[in-house]
Design brief:
MetI-like fold; alpha/beta; D-Maltodextrin-Binding Protein, domain 2; elongated; three-stranded antiparallel beta sheet; five-stranded mixed beta sheet
């Protein structure tokens, strides 16, 4: 029979899990999103601040993803606006090819319920670049010169390699024979170029890193890159609901020069301003009154940011874990009781576990949108196997003599489960829950890629700014949280695992 302490421990465990399952509501006005590089985040901040100054409730979700993710989120209504470029929208998002001089972009987008602003005033075209000293040494000035240097190592941003107007187009039109290039995050390509790991990479013409890393832009002598005028895409129904959205777009359209954009990018890269303050300074420079934010002081602001990231990360860790306990523990019991079911169930859950995290997150966006829902669903999927498998192993591993003793006492099937099998299996069950919790801490950092926040947000920001200190503000708390969870489960084991089993294990 279970002791009072064991029953109390089980009730405490269930209660703690349920308490962690409180949903986090997100207020909603106009939701502006941005891509994963600095310039896009600045544009997202600028529009968000403009909307707020025009009396429109708005919030910004930075670094939500690349164009395909943002486009899907915009169509589904998960977000209301984001900044992009005409060439990207026409060639990649809409998939148009051929001559497009008379292409009517507003009409094409209106079919999807999407509107487009007037050009913001600058273009950010694709270019290829090399370290200036390397280019001088080899006498390379144009992209066509690369044909005579097939030994050069190429490395591009992830999306550039697959885009029709990116590497495939360059390779075909310039007849380049270089090996398949390395792929990495765009911000990392600059460090790889500086260190000599790669020799050529793709750039954006307004990147501040071009000057900072002494990079020379190679001339596109065949003029193959289309125009990439900066614009905002927005939902037409959102514009109808919030007239201030159109006022805000009219205020900023045509007012950002290439010089302005390069200066803002440089200020953020050098660490003198954040994306938000760079956007505020620019908006004030063109006569738009932006109310200053209340500053709590640098230390207090940092502590507030860590506290917010911690709350979001705890949500990402413990809501899926609670659902895992409610679903995977019973499934593990059923798998042990019914072997045929167990074979199929464990096999299915095991296959789901092998799906790459990023692929699963992107796959879930069309069904669950962005933010918490797809991140929680992915973490639930990944947490199911360790809990279910350990529950199954814990029950089937019980010695037959103990089962026979329970049957000899005349205990019913469910009494045997509750009073004998679960207590004996509890060490493995708790170990499975602990493994799932610690795995969630690490995997949850990827949730920031789709706007779920948490400790992944400062990690992405640090990668974007090439700032190890910012990366550590996400990585260190995540590691500490994993340690805290490890210690907490050590304490919890005293209440859930019978004393005899704990003593036998020591």
């Amino acid at each position: 029979m279970a002791t009072t302490r064991q029953v109390y421990g089980r009730v405490l465990l269930v209660g703690a899990i349920l308490m962690c399952s409180a949903a986090v509501a997100r207020p909603r006005g106009v939701l502006v999103a941005s891509k994963t590089f600095t310039e896009a985040v600045i544009l997202g901040e600028a529009l968000t601040q403009l909307l707020n100054s025009n009396g429109v409730p708005a919030q910004h979700v930075p670094s939500l993803g690349d164009s395909p993710i943002l486009w899907k989120a915009l169509q589904s209504g998960e977000i209301d606006a984001y900044g992009d470029y005409t060439g990207t929208v026409i060639r990649e998002t809409l998939g148009m090819t051929g001559e497009l001089h008379n292409f009517d972009l507003p009409a094409a987008l209106a079919k999807y319920g999407i509107g487009v602003s007037r050009p913001l005033g600058f273009s950010n075209v694709y270019i290829l670049g090399m370290r200036a000293d390397k280019a001088r040494q080899l006498g390379i000035r144009k992209i066509s010169d690369l044909r005579f240097h097939p030994q050069l190592k190429l490395g591009f941003g992830n999306d550039f390699v697959e885009r029709h107007d990116g590497w495939p187009l360059i390779k075909r039109r310039y007849h380049l024979t270089h090996k398949h290039p390395k792929t990495m995050e765009h911000q990392i390509t600059y460090r790889a170029l500086a260190s000599g790991d790669i020799d050529v990479t793709n750039l954006y013409s307004t990147d501040a890193e071009i000057k900072a890393y002494d990079i020379v832009a190679l001339e596109d002598d065949l003029r193959i890159f289309p125009s990439y005028e900066a614009i905002y895409l927005y939902r037409l129904d959102t514009a109808a609901k919030y007239p201030g959205l159109m006022r805000s777009l009219s205020h900023i359209s045509g007012n950002i020069s290439e010089k302005d954009m390069i200066a803002m990018n440089a200020a953020v890269r050098e660490g003198t301003e954040s994306e938000a303050t760079a956007a505020t300074r620019f908006l004030r420079s063109i006569g738009i009154a932006i109310k200053p934010k209340k500053h709590l002081g640098r230390i207090n602001e940092s502590l507030k940011g860590v506290a917010e990231d911690t709350l979001r990360h705890l949500t990402l860790v413990f809501i899926p874990l609670a659902l895992n306990c409610l679903v995977a523990l019973p499934l593990g019991v059923l798998a042990a009781r019914y072997p045929k079911f167990g074979v199929y169930a464990l096999g299915f859950v095991g296959v789901a576990q092998t799906i790459p995290s990023l692929a699963l997150l992107v796959f879930l966006i069309p069904f669950l949108g962005v933010g918490y829902p797809p991140a929680l669903a992915a973490l639930f999927i990944y947490g199911t196997l360790p809990i279910m498998k350990n529950t199954y192993e814990g029950i089937v591993g019980i010695a037959p003599s103990l089962r026979e003793s329970a049957e000899a006492l005349g205990l019913s099937s469910w009494r045997r489960l509750w009073d004998v099998e679960l207590p004996l299996a509890s060490p493995l069950m708790i170990a499975g829950v602990k493994v799932a919790a610690i795995l969630n801490v690490g995997t949850a950092t990827l949730g920031a890629i789709i706007g779920a926040g948490g400790y992944g947000e400062p990690i992405l920001e640090g990668i974007r700014h090439d700032d190890m200190a910012v990366i550590l503000t996400g990585a260190v708390p995540a590691a500490l949280l994993a340690v805290v969870i490890q210690v907490a489960f050590g304490w919890l084991e005293k209440f859930v695992i019978p004393r005899g089993l704990r003593q036998a294990a020591t």
